[in-house]
Amino acid sequence: MLNNDRRKTEKDYWEAISQEPIKNRLPSKLNVGVLNVTRLLKRHVRPGSRYLEIGCAPGKMLAWVASVLKAEVNGLDYSEPGIAKCRALFDALGLKVNLYHDDFFNHHLPPAFFDVVTSFGVIEHFDNVQPVVQRHLDLVRPGGVALIVIPNYGGIYGSLQRWCDAPSMALHNLEIMKPCVLVALVESSDVERVCAYPFGAMSPWILRLDKRLPRFVAKLVSLGINAVGLLQPMTIEMLAPMLVLEIRKGTSS
User: In the chain, how many domains are there?
Assistant: First the structure.
């Protein structure tokens, strides 16, 4: 692990998250957070696509992409317990997934190889974000796309999360949580198209309501918001829980 990449979290933070129990099955679309991600991925991933997820533990979305979208699936994570949890999930589901237990700044992935490179909640944990974005793009083949997703803590969700769990906000680079700032992070000359946008139906799952409310009440509130989100027909920008940085690499790269 390198020490000069200005991370806002340490390895033990991710390993602690990896210890949380999961069920060895595909993610449920009754969870609006899952539904949001699957809707995004369906736009870009095709059967046979070479798909890579950075920070893939516990592997739920990788499993869904392999099982439902029939892509050639790859995942990288630098948490050993996280990789072990991925393997247990894929073994239980009988899925073939290529896993890399590596640090993103010192990995063994082939450059310019993948059709779709994704990460969900990774780049906002760095102070110096541009090199992290570029490392995503370095792995994308000519004509491929990078989809870099972060929580939308720039608006109402940020205000609510500060009320719920202010210390956790220090682990996030809040300065990048605007579409115009995300676009400005892309400095590569071999990009055909770059855009950033709020995405998804309203979701409670990026908030730690249980830190402020009694656990039972927090659960009821979360399930209520989740139900409303499942019925929401389109993205409402101020209620969108995700910001997506979409980078299409040029075919002449």
Answer: 1
pLDDT digits (tens, 9 = 90+) for 150-190: 999 999 999 999 999 999 999 999 999 999 999 999 988 88
Rounded to the nearest 5 percent, the helix, strand and coil shares of the chain are: 40, 20, 40
CA dihedral 187, 193, 196, 197 (to 10 degrees): 180
At position 44, the amino acid (one-letter code) is H
Count of CB atoms situated within 10 Å of the CB of 25? 11
Which helix (H) or strand (E) element contains residue 157? helix 156-169
Nearby residues of 228 by Cβ (< 8 Å), 6 or more positions away: 202
- Express each pLDDT in 21-58 by its tens digit: 678 899 999 999 999 999 999 999 999 999 999 999 99
Q: Is residue 99 part of a domain?
A: yes
Cα gap 90→135, rounded to integer Å: 26
pLDDT at 50: 98
- 195 part of a folded domain: yes
How much is the mean pLDDT over the chain?
Answer: 92
Residue 94 within any structural domain of the chain: yes
The enclosing domain of 59 has a CATH number of 3.40.50.150
How far is the first Cα of the chain from the last one, in angstroms, to the nearest whole number? 30
pLDDT at residue 251 greater than cutoff 90:
no
Per-residue pLDDT band for 1 (boundaries 50, 70, 90) equals: very low
Residue 17, domain member (yes or no)? yes
**207, two tokens:** 């908030």
Q: Give the range of the structural domain holding residue 125, as residue numbers without chain letter.
A: 11-152+173-201+243-249
Number of H helices, E strands in the chain: 8, 7
> Which of 116, 111, 188, 193 has its CA nearest to residue 148?
116
